[in-house]
Design goal:
Jelly Rolls, 4 domains, Phage tail protein beta-alpha-beta fold, 14-stranded mixed sheet, mainly beta, 5 helices, Thrombin, subunit H, 6-stranded antiparallel sheet
Length: 564
């Protein structure tokens, strides 16, 4: 039979949110695609394609002005490869190289990497993350690096592990952070054949719903209706507020009741609430500042105290340089104590009347999180809904944010290959019974630097250690997870390692379902050894390779055992 009908397209310009692709199949000599990993414990790197193109016409010479592709041959833009109408690869051109020989042959070579390569190239700024499930965190990072939203660009499981607060340092690339998220519950982030960023959690597939709440204890966080609870504050709508219409500023001097400094332009705040401080969490206070015309400095004095005894538990003084302009700048600080307290006192000093303040968040947590009040919120994500409400009178009471998460159902693709009827026939397969994925110890390291070492039996298969990151917030679960890993990897695997199929040997009805399989799908391999009865193994696909020429199309699946 003839080889499946392959098509290779590339595009440099964009329209309507995607690339405008041009068909160059006529010129293509060979396509080699390699995607995935060789061991299920590995991190995914970018899936790569190498495309060899006939360049005897010079059409793919970027300097040849008479080429129909002039201006399109550049180390950028997208590539799409389809076979029998099924997209099997999408990536982004990294480099062009050119081979010429003395016999007059000229070949242009496109080196292509999938969307995972873009994640490795995109660094995060210093970023505080609140407690979210792993899938939420993946979506937050994708939002931060500017990756498009929607199902055409992402396929994200919600995750089974709730992550703790985290402070990501400047220069951390998105892919490195995705790997740490994956370790937390042994999920993985990768690019699928359509070019979408995928996150598969440890179980996947089951739609669940979870709800959790946050509370902003500030009694007047946005100044939208009054200056209630803030001393020496004047509302103003003269500039665009961070949230809503109104912000606050000090228009007269007053005494700093915390450090006693007289004659300062300042806004004072004091709140007593027995639920305000929770041992082990502390309080995090943040607000936004803006200086429309004159740069200045805002000074924040804050203290925790016991309203009955008057004893001061802890205090802080911090300075924030406020740049002149239209941008609101956020400042925040934590407060901790081991003592019994129920009151927060603050004094916010500004430079005369030229610095404005808005969007105050007081939360019983140890880390900075997104701003919210009963009307406004900065909390956004692709797979959960957010509801905000005032606990009392609008704008002058505490407020509660309710986050409801529902994960979309992810269904694993399933295929079957066989040496008999009942599936697409394979040409070769390799069985492995080995200890290369066997570990005698699993060590998880948390964001706080805490490690938990679950050591198994080192006497039979050696003392190799599987080291994993853990960004979750449940140390008990952390310890239990090491047992799960150790049970899965403490003994050698008997598995199908690779399965090869020569697609040109079969008709479209047999090969189209195989072409549609992707990483993390399941593949059942049925075979009958001459010395035994029929057997079958259901495996997880962890890698897919293609080799395409005008005369043939070979496809190789790399497989692993299915573990939680």
């Amino acid at each position: 039979m003839a080889a499946p009908v392959a098509k290779v397209e590339f595009g440099l310009t964009q329209s309507g949110g995607d690339y405008v692709f041009r068909d160059i199949t006529t010129y293509v000599r060979e396509v080699s695609i390699t995607r995935g990993i060789s061991r299920v414990q590995d991190y995914f790197n970018s899936g790569n394609a190498t495309i060899y193109v006939d360049n005897r016409t010079g059409y793919f010479d970027p300097t040849y002005a008479s080429s129909p592709f002039y201006g399109q041959v550049a180390p950028t833009g997208a590539v799409r490869v389809t076979s029998n109408g099924v997209v099997i690869y999408r990536g982004y051109i990294q480099t062009w190289s050119f081979q010429n020989d003395i016999y007059g042959d000229h070949t242009a070579i496109m080196n292509v990497a999938d969307s995972l390569s873009l994640m490795a190239q995109r660094d995060l700024n210093t970023q505080y993350f609140g407690p979210r499930y792993t899938g939420h965190r993946v979506n937050e990072v994708l939002d931060l690096v500017g990756w498009p939203s929607g199902t055409a660009w992402r396929s994200i499981d919600a995750g089974k592990e709730k992550m703790t607060y985290d402070n990501v340092q400047q220069g951390t690339d998105a892919m490195t952070y995705f790997n740490a998220i994956g370790d937390t519950e042994f999920g993985r982030v990768y690019a699928d054949r359509l070019g979408r960023i995928n996150f598969r959690d440890s179980m996947g597939g089951t739609a669940t719903s979870r709800t959790w709440t946050r509370k902003n204890y500030c009694l007047n966080p946005n100044f939208e209706s009054a200056t209630t609870n803030w001393g020496n504050a004047t509302r103003s709508s003269a500039i665009a507020a961070y949230k809503g219409t109104w912000s606050a500023r000090a228009t007269a001097t007053t005494t700093n009741t915390i450090n006693g400094a007289p004659s300062q332009y300042g806004l004072s705040y004091s709140q007593t609430n027995s639920s305000l401080y929770q041992a082990g969490k502390g309080i995090y206070v943040s607000m936004y500042f803006r200086a429309p015309s004159i740069a200045g400095t805002a000074y924040i004095d804050a203290q925790l105290r016991n309203s009955s005894s008057g004893a001061t538990a802890t205090s802080i003084n911090t300075a924030i340089a406020v740049t002149a302009g239209t941008t609101w700048q956020r400042a925040g600080f934590p407060l901790y104590t081991d003592q019994s307290i129920d009151t927060l006192d603050m004094f916010v000093t500004t430079n005369a009347t030229s610095t404005y303040m808005d969007a105050v968040l007081i939360e019983n947590t140890a880390y900075l999180d997104t701003y919210f009040d009963g009307t406004y919120t900065d909390t956004t994500a692709s797979i959960y809904s957010v509801t905000d409400a005032w606990d009392g009178t609008a704008n002058v009471s505490t407020s509660t944010e309710t986050i409801v998460e529902t994960t979309p159902t992810f269904s694993y693709g399933a295929g079957r290959v066989s040496d008999t009827a009942g599936g697409t026939a394979y040409s070769t397969f390799e069985l492995v019974y080995g200890s290369e994925n066997t570990y005698g110890s699993v060590v998880l390291t948390s964001t706080a630097g805490t490690t938990y070492d679950n050591a198994g039996d080192f006497t039979v298969y050696g003392s190799r250690t599987l080291n994993l990151n853990y960004l979750g917030d449940d140390l008990t679960a952390q310890q239990a997870k090491t047992t799960t890993y150790l049970n899965a990897y403490s003994a050698p695997e008997y598995r199908i390692n690779t399965v090869g199929i020569q697609l040109e040997a079969y008709g479209s009805a047999a090969i189209t379902p195989v072409l549609g399989l992707d990483i993390w799908d399941h593949l059942t391999v049925a075979y009958t050894p001459p010395w035994s009865t029929a057997r079958s193994l259901e495996q997880r696909i962890i890698g897919i390779d293609h080799l395409i020429t005008p005369a043939q199309h070979s496809m190789t699946f790399h497989l692993s055992q299915i573990v939680p």
